Amino acid sequence: MLSLPVGHEEKVQDPDREKDEPKANMGSKSWAELAGEMKIFLWNPEERTCLGRTAKSWGLILLFYFIFYTCLAGMFAFCLYAMLLTLSPYTPRFRDRVSPPGVMIRPYLNGFTIAFNVSQPSTWQPYVDSMHHFLAAYDDKVQEEKNIECVPGQYFIQGGYDSVEKKACQFKRSLLQNCSGIEDPTFGFSKGQPCILLKMNRIIGYRPGAGAPVSVDCKVQKGNESHLRSVDFYPGNGTFDLMYYPYYGKFTHVNYTSPLVAMHFTDVQRNHLVPIQCRLNGKGIINDLNSDRFLGRIIFTLSIGK
Amino acid sequence: MQDDHRLSTSDLEKKYGTSIDKGLSSARAAEILARDGPNCLTPPKATPEIVKFLKQMIGGFSILLWIGAGFSWISFGIQLAQGVDSAFDNLYLGVVLALVVILTGIFAYYQEAKSTNIMASFSKMIPQQALVLRDAEKKELPADQLVVGDIVEIKGGDRIPADIRLIFTQGCKVDNSSLTGESEPQSRSCDFTHENPLETKNIAFYSTTCVEGTATGIVINTGDRTIIGRIASLASGVGNEKTPIAIEIEHFVYLVAGVAISIGVLFFIISVSMRYKILDSIIFLIGIIVANVPEGLLATVTVSLSLTAKRMAKKNCLVKNLEAVETLGSTSIICSDKTGTLTQNRMTVAHLWFDNQIYSADTSEDQTTQPFDQSSATWTALSKIVTLCNRAEFRPGQENLPIMKRVVVGDASETALLKFSEVILGDVMSIRAQNKKVAEIPFNSTNKFQLSIHETDDPQDKRFLLVMKGAPERILERCSTIMINGKEEPLDSEKAEAFQTAYMELGGMGERVLGFCHLYLPENEFPDTFQFDTDSMNFPTSNLCFVGLLSMIDPPRSTVPDAVSKCRSAGIKVIMVTGDHPITAKAIAKSVGIISATSETVEDIAKRLNIPVEQVNRREATAAVVNGMELKDMSSEQLDEILLNHSEIVFARTSPQQKLIIVEGCQRQGAVVAVTGDGVNDSPALKKADIGIAMGIAGSDAAKNAADMVLLDDNFASIVTGVEEGRLIFDNLKKTIAYTLTKNIAELCPFLIYIIASIPMPIGTITILFIDLGTDIIPSVALAYEKAESDIMNRRPRNKRKDRLVNEQLAIYSYLQIGIMQSVGAFVTYFTVYAEQGFLPLTLLGVRVNWESNAINDFEDSYGQQWTKYQRTYLQWTGYTAFFVSITIQQVADLIIRKTRRNSIFRQGLFRNKVIWVGIFSQIGIALILTYGLGHVTALNFTPLRFQYWFVAVPFAILIWVYDEIRKLLIRRYPGSWWDKNMYY
């Protein structure tokens, strides 16, 4: 507390002076007095005031604040409306914060540790269900119905106005081969060789790899590298084909389905926590940023028990 | 115990190696001084510095911040145990909060130490002097240079400079109340009257006061070895009294802390009932507390107060404690002395009467010529009398000084006449030398005249010239002729009548009138060998030739009328209290405006209407001149009636005791009274007054001790300056607080909206601290430099009990109006930043849980793009920065509108207070550095912001300015209206 230099001693010794000083000391009043004052403040029957104001005074002040805040709210709404008018409904003005792309995996249940016992289906069944659920949109039928076949190996650039609906390329579930869940509905979980899907975050207008497809690799993250002995990648040896890019946004690119890379962990050390980092590799991809562990890479732990 | 009081004078001389006639030699004194140390008390052991420091650490808002820091660490501990990734954020926050408390504590401690030093240096500017005999010469020395064996002289009003064994006294009485508590003055003599040194009459003690009489004594003890130095309890008995401004600030701290805690607890309950985790709710609580507490404010207030104290010292008001600055601002009555305070304290020739005409003389402080007509031969004769019939002389060696500043040996009237003639005629001394004085009768109270006989400076003229001056009626009695236009004419009744008229007129102006006459003694009767005998008066002293009248007055200081009229418009009543004659007092009161030109006293009305005084309706008279004799017989009710019914009051012929009665009377009216005083006897009144003002030049030590403030130049106008400064600091503190409180809402709203609407966090706790302790500090100090609004001296004095520093209007206007505007402006920026990155406002509502989830790294925005957690966090920091920048930009507008509370900014002048612009540039500069310079230090949560976002809040800044101008306009247009009552703070 700030305490200012104080008066000289005579003052303290002068009792008359003490009396004259207004005492704003909170502690000097008794509780009963305080309560009495509080009561009067809440409702003063003589002057008919509540919290120090009469009904009329309250009415006026509330009316004032009603008008005041209505005007402010109006101004707020107007400013936001005017700001939104300047924005395109199809493309955000800036995309510098969202690129380069981040990475996610499926199945995703409660974190980045995928742990199960092969012999206990109840431990891996939720993963399998999650995969099936996720891949429903990639069913060959659905894809054929909604999307077109595109020319692989090149970006699928669609001109025209922003507002024109864009075509999406087919990404059939069957492309994932052993990890498609078609032949093995347990995605390898029942054999202790789980499939994990990797997807790259969607960014409007982003062309990954700058002409060369982005590929995926996986290795043990800070651990015994011999724990991860073999991984198979589908489709196309673990690349994201260029034809799925660029993305045009959810309003015009309605049926767009993100391309996937399936990672089939065919030989992983059992009964161990195996930390694995899977990375995107390609031009323009950043995968070694310390602060963002999901930018261009993903770290997860496999724990496969008997 | 010493036995000095038993020793004889010669034994004392031997004991201390001194001599009563010669004193100590300077060399010997220096030796003893080196041995014993300076003659001053070792200051009482103050509160240890570390305790003071710790007090700063836990006082006021600090405790709230410590609580916040504590909560942070607790939640860090819990989160760490739970293995939450972001646990360390809370650790850092706790550390930052602790750092803030420690840093602001250090700063406040430093500021307090500095302001204590300033106050201490002020008291050093009014050092105690002692008159000492050294090397057989009397010298004025600072009292702390005294050593044992020094011979000192004391007169009434002095503080005893050390323990003194008296060797010569004349009616000496001392006030021992500070030592023994005896309130009656004790007489002192040279006699050994008691075995106990404390009881004996021949010792006077250090720090007591000599009330009357004179004394000489030998210093027997100095410094801590004096009796008072040995009484340790007295030294440590200095109590601490809370100053009004400290009370106001405490009130403010309670208010803000109350708001912080209630909102914090309220939202804690809300967030818990909204199913937030307890831990999260605690973190919200920390944020709310940090947002609500104006961390930098208390330090700012101390800085502002010290600035004012310094500024006042520059204007000759030495404040002995900061309390006085503020009390002076709320003064409603000033009881002022006349002599020296309102007047120049030197007699000056004001009017002349010769050739049947009254001439006015210049009475200003720095006159160099006199403008009246000096061509008449009568004037030549008169000037000769004035010059010759005068015993006063200039002290030698002052030829380079302006005449008015030279020191004169002689009484007040003679001094006035000497300076007057020196101004007009030039070298008076050489004129006197040319007219050699041959005989002289000095003035005495029985004959009431002064006479001298001179040879003339004309070698041809062998006559002697007899010149005489004295009480006009006595002089006229001795005259038979009068000089008109250089010619002697018989003094008939008509001319005597003219004299009477002039005499009455000059006397009526409260001036001291002197008559002048001369006579050339006939050469035949008085040859140049004649022996004049002043005892037998062997020369004529009647049938002289009357030449003219001169009247003198102690003229008002030239700055006083202006100051009085300022007081009048400031609603401050100026009451003159003087020991002078009522007529003189009234004349001075009229000339300085204490009694205005149009107002009349009861006596004036009686005279005008030609009715007895008793019949006059007392209510009609606005002015009153109260004689001390009348005051003596008055009951306190009668005095109250006079104080209440007359706006212009002069108390004349009053004793210092009556001054106390007058002060008490004023205080009964509920006034805040300032009293000036210089003598010992004024001390009770000075103490009794709400603010006692002692005179720095004329004041006695006792008066200076009793006073709260010392006027270095004894000038009444300085009091008014002090009042102005006092009011100004109160206003400016209000402005500073209003400025600081406003942004608290803009810092608080984000938390509330965050909790209720579950949007991504708009501003971080650390960012808030950067506003409170970074961008806002210099601007809030800059407001202390703000010039007064033009109406500052046109207002009624502040009512101490009603007009609080932080009142309801100030809090409500800052919190609920400007603060909300700022929040809206900042939120517009916030939503703009998010929308332009892909998160449209509506998508943000309710996203908090997913947004903050570390696991979700494909969070979808309004356009279908997917974001990692870190990308979102980075965007969130950009939001913080944008919010921060918006608040800063709007605080610039807030700073500008706070320059005035009533007047338009354009009237006040945008550029008059340059420091405000330093504040604005510093604010923006700091924001630029934080944003672009430190934008890459992730711990600070700033990111380099796109340039255009600096301007999003500008319309709201303009809105704030325009709205406040409208508010002020309506307040000025409709004083007393609903708007005025609710919107003026």
* Secondary structural class of chain A: alpha+beta
The number of distinct β-strands of chain A equals: 11
- Beta-strand portion of chain B reads 15-25%
Oligomer: heterodimer
| Helix share bin of chain A | 10-25%
What is the rounded distance between the termini of chain A? 67 Å
- Tell me the span between the first and last alpha carbons of chain B: 63 Å
Give average pLDDT of chain A, whole number: 84
pLDDT below 50 for ≥5 consecutive residues: which ranges of chain A? Answer: 1-27
Describe the structure.
Chain B: This is Sodium/potassium-transporting ATPase subunit alpha. Chain B: Belongs to the cation transport ATPase (P-type) (TC 3.A.3) family. Type IIC subfamily. Chain B: Its main location: membrane. The complex is a heterodimer of chains A (306) and B (985). Chain A has 6 helices and 11 strands. Chain A has helices at 9-13, 15-20, 31-42, 55-85, 121-135, 140-146, and strands at 49-50, 53-54, 103-106, 113-117, 195-200, 214-220, 228-234, 239-240, 260-268, 273-281, 297-305. A 5-stranded mixed β-sheet of chain A has the order 4-11-10-6-8, with helices on one face. In chain A, a hairpin with a 2-residue loop joins strand 1 and strand 2 (53-54). Chain B is an alpha+beta fold and 985 residues long. In chain B, the strands form 5 sheets. In chain B, strands 10, 11, 14, 15, 16, 17, 18, 19 and 20 form a 9-stranded mixed β-sheet that branches. In chain B, strands 8-26-25-24-9-21-23-22 form an 8-stranded mixed β-sheet, sandwiched between helices. The interface between A and B is large, with 69 and 83 residues.
